[in-house]
Every structure is written in structure tokens, then in C-alpha cells.
Specification:
Elements (H helix, E strand, L loop, with lengths): L3 E2 L5 E2 L2 H15 L4 H13 L4 H29 L4 H26 L1
Antiparallel strand pairs: 1-2
Helix pairs in contact: 1-2, 2-3
GO molecular function: DNA binding
InterPro entries: DNA-bd_dom_put_sf, MerR-type_HTH_dom
Length: about 110
């Protein structure tokens, strides 16, 4: 990624670079190693999907989903010991993200 420079020496990123930066941030939040992030970005930018790269990416997503499922089960157990107000706060905070996740998962299958 080689951004252009403005007259005042600020870096100017094109839309593709900004999307790549956002993707790196997302994957780092999910504890994905940088070498995997690089492979994913390279794969998406080249528009060439090697079977190995694709399989590695799908395996990583499957692992993330498995970890998320465990965390949700832990949260459900915690919620059993919370009062109504605490449960409402959690549900409100997670409802939009949950809906987005469900839509993304459904898009894979349909």
C-alpha cells in the first residue's frame, strides 16, 4: 500500500486502501495473525481464490464461530444470575449486532 501525499505531506489513501485498513482492524480484533490477514487481503485484491487460501480462510472463520458460540453459552449462564435490568441492557446492546451476524450468515447459505 503506497498512499499518495498531499502538498502538506498528508497521506492520501484511495477507497480500496481504506477498505483494506478497515479489514485489518476487524481481523486484528478477532486475534487473527497478521500473516493470515495479509493472505486474506491479497486473495481478495487479486480476485484469485486458490483452494488452499480459501480453505484456510473458511477454517479461520469456523474457529471464530466456534469461539463465539462458547462465549455465548458462557454469557447465557451469567445471565441466569443477573437481574432483569442487567439482562435488558445486554440484550439491547447485542440485538443490532446479532441481527447483522444472522444476516451475514444467511447470506452465505442463500
Amino acid at each position: 500500500m503506497h498512499p499518495r501525499r498531499s502538498d502538506s505531506n498528508y497521506r492520501l489513501y484511495d477507497e480500496e486502501a481504506v477498505e483494506a485498513i478497515e479489514m485489518v482492524k476487524r481481523y486484528k480484533k478477532m486475534n487473527c495473525p497478521l500473516y493470515e490477514i495479509k493472505d486474506i487481503i491479497d486473495m481478495l485484491q487479486s480476485k484469485k481464490l486458490s483452494n488452499k487460501s480459501l480453505e484456510m480462510h473458511v477454517d479461520h472463520i469456523a474457529q471464530l464461530m466456534q469461539n463465539l458460540e462458547k462465549e455465548i453459552k458462557d454469557m447465557q449462564q451469567l445471565m441466569d444470575h443477573m437481574n432483569r435490568e442487567q439482562r435488558t441492557i445486554i440484550r439491547e446492546k447485542l440485538s443490532k449486532q446479532s441481527a447483522n451476524l444472522v444476516r451475514a450468515l444467511l447470506a452465505i447459505y442463500y
